[in-house]
Every structure is written in structure tokens, then in C-alpha cells.
Design brief:
alpha+beta; Cathepsin B, Chain A; two-stranded antiparallel sheet; globular
């Protein structure tokens, strides 16, 4: 089978503390590591792999499907003795309301881009970004430090949400 290589492009991702190997399809792992971390316990994507016994997707393989994400959440929640929530998004409540109802300030959101392949991504909504009440999305995969974002390309993340997950009671 011949593959037209002109349709592919390489993405160079710089390693960071949440994504030390610079992988470009492990957004669920890096987001989950942030959600599970505490001030005294900095969880890495490698720790998530160890807890779940699931490997991070290799570059080029594609990300995780919702079924895999739920398996990953269940394994990590069991190891960390946490209660998790994984739900399909419905826009009848604001993210802040969802978080307040679960006693947490952070949630990972999953969305699909409106591109030819409907590729997905996972970022974190944090109600207290800098400890000063500032709210916003953070992308832990793409840069040396978490990148605040509200759009992916030309589209607002809020308009593309499909699922969310969180760990109850994690501030």
C-alpha cells in the first residue's frame, strides 16, 4: 500500500515536567497526572502508566477512545483511593457548576476538532490557575510549562466539548 506522505506533517513537542518524553498523543495521561497531583505528590504520566498498567499511546498511533479512558480512570482511582466521574458533556451546566457539585476545582475535558479526521485532545479546566481565582483551560502536553488556551485553531474549546473527567474532592 502506497501512502501519500505529503498529507503528514511532523510536530516537534518540547519535553516538559508533565510530558518528559515529548509525546504528542498522551494528552489524557498528562492531564490526569495534573488532576491526581497534590502539593506533596507530583504525579507524572509515567506514574499513571504504572498505576493503570496501560501504556501511553505511541506517536502516530492515535489517542485513547472513551472506553480506554474510563478503564484508565478506574485503575488510577483504585490505586489512589479516589472517586472519579467520567461523563459525556451536556451544556446545560457551566464547568464551574459541575466542579462545585463534585467538590473540586479542576476537570479534564475531551473534545474533537472539526477537521477531516475528527482528531481529539484533552486539556484541563482549572478554576484557580495561579491561586488567585483566575479560571481557564491549560494544555500540559505542548510546551515547557502549561499553556493557557481557550481555542484550538480557530474554534473555541467550549464549542467542541464531548466528555469530561474529574476526581471528586481534589482541589
Amino acid at each position: 500500500m502506497d501512502v501519500d506522505q505529503s498529507t503528514f506533517h511532523a510536530i516537534q513537542i518540547q519535553p516538559n515536567s508533565r510530558n518528559p518524553y515529548g509525546l504528542d498523543e498522551n494528552c489524557v495521561f498528562v492531564s490526569m497526572a495534573y488532576l491526581v497531583s497534590t502539593r506533596s505528590d507530583n504525579v507524572t504520566p509515567h506514574d499513571i502508566v504504572n498505576m493503570s498498567e496501560m501504556m501511553q499511546p505511541a506517536d502516530g498511533r492515535g489517542g485513547l477512545e472513551p472506553y480506554d479512558i474510563e478503564r484508565l480512570l478506574a485503575a488510577v482511582a483504585e490505586k489512589k483511593r479516589l472517586k472519579y466521574v467520567f461523563q459525556q458533556w451536556s451544556d446545560h451546566r457551566a464547568l464551574d457548576e459541575v466542579l462545585e457539585s463534585h467538590g473540586t476545582k479542576k476537570v479534564a475535558v475531551l473534545y474533537r476538532r472539526n477537521n477531516k479526521y475528527r482528531t481529539g485532545h484533552c486539556v484541563v479546566w482549572d478554576m484557580d490557575l495561579q491561586g488567585n481565582g483566575q479560571k481557564g483551560y491549560l494544555d500540559f502536553q505542548q510546551a515547557q510549562h502549561p499553556v493557557p488556551c481557550e481555542k484550538d485553531g480557530d474554534e473555541y474549546i467550549d464549542d467542541m466539548l464531548e466528555y469530561y473527567f474529574l476526581f471528586e474532592g481534589r482541589a
